Amino acid sequence: MRRAFLTAEWRNLILANFAVPEELLRPHLPPGCEFDRRDGACWASLVAFQFLNTRVLGISWPGFRNFPEWNLRFYVRRGEERGVCFVREFVPQWTVATIARVLYNEPYRAARMAMDVRDEPTGTRAEYRVRWGGREHTMCAESAAPPVRPAADSLEHWFKEHEHGFGTGRRGGLIRYGVEHPEWDVRPIRDLHIDIDWGLLYGPEWAPMNGTAPASAVFAVGSAVRVSPRA
Question: Could you tell me the residue range of the domain that residue 11 belongs to?
């Protein structure tokens, strides 16, 4: 593990999980990786969360510390390493998106975004919005009870716990990084609302996903995280 490129807190993560046709994900599969299947299917998750107290190479940049992120990720393996790859990632800052694309070839885009997270007497409510393609897309989750720790063999654990990230460099080689954080508790979901247009967010080939309900969802508490490049 090399010096951390990024440290931050990832809080109040909504993961809406979908079985996705392999042909939609194949163009984004990094070299040397294979799909991490569950129940015979390839999986992708819409993920929205708070990016807080952000530091890049130990430096906290004014105006770039706290913001929402929205991404579409899918699940892969490289040998025994389970990890995630990204189809597209949205942040509100043009500078953050440009640096991530230029330096790391990560599929970031800058967009108008908003987040609203509230701790209420009956639980926590988190809502994330991104404006893209001429309309607003929304994900919102409300919890029903205090957080719990899912079992290691549970579906929630399978989707939320990954120590590796993978991508493809500009020259076609594998990019590999580590993500360190303590195991996350999850909030039981009382209500989940998703209003998106897949084709606008991710390209016309994704339009057949419109109207598809997630197979499962996770509302993770989150924690401090440390992201470091790996050889």
Answer: 6-229
Domain count, the chain: 1
Question: In the predicted model, what is the mean pLDDT of residues 134-162?
Answer: 96
Which pLDDT value is given to residue 65?
Answer: 79
Interatomic CA distance for residues 16 and 192, integer angstroms? 9
Q: How far apart are CA 54 and CA 51, in angstroms?
A: 7
pLDDT in tens, 41-96: 999 999 999 999 987 765 566 567 799 999 999 999 999 999 999 999 999 987 77
User: 82: buried, middle or exposed (CB in 10 Å: 19+, 13-18, 0-12)?
Assistant: middle
Contact 135, 200 (CB under 8 A): yes
Half-sphere exposure at residue 46, Cβ-oriented, CA atoms within 13 angstroms: 27
SS3 label, residue 224: strand
pLDDT tens column, 188-210: 999 999 999 999 999 999 999 99
Sequence length of the chain is 231
Q: What is the DSSP string of 27-95?
A: GGPPTT-EE--BTTB-EEEEEEEEEEEEEETTB--TTSSSEEEEEEEEEEEETTEEEEEEEEEEES-HH
User: pLDDT value at position 1?
Assistant: 45
pTM: predicted TM-score of the whole model, two decimal places: 0.94
Q: What type of residue sits at position 119? A: D
The CATH number that applies at residue 159 is 2.40.400.10
Residues sharing a CB contact under 8 Å with residue 138, sequence separation 6 or more, in sequence order: 127, 128, 129, 193, 194, 195, 196
- The burial class, CB within 10 Å (0-12 / 13-18 / 19+), for 143 is buried
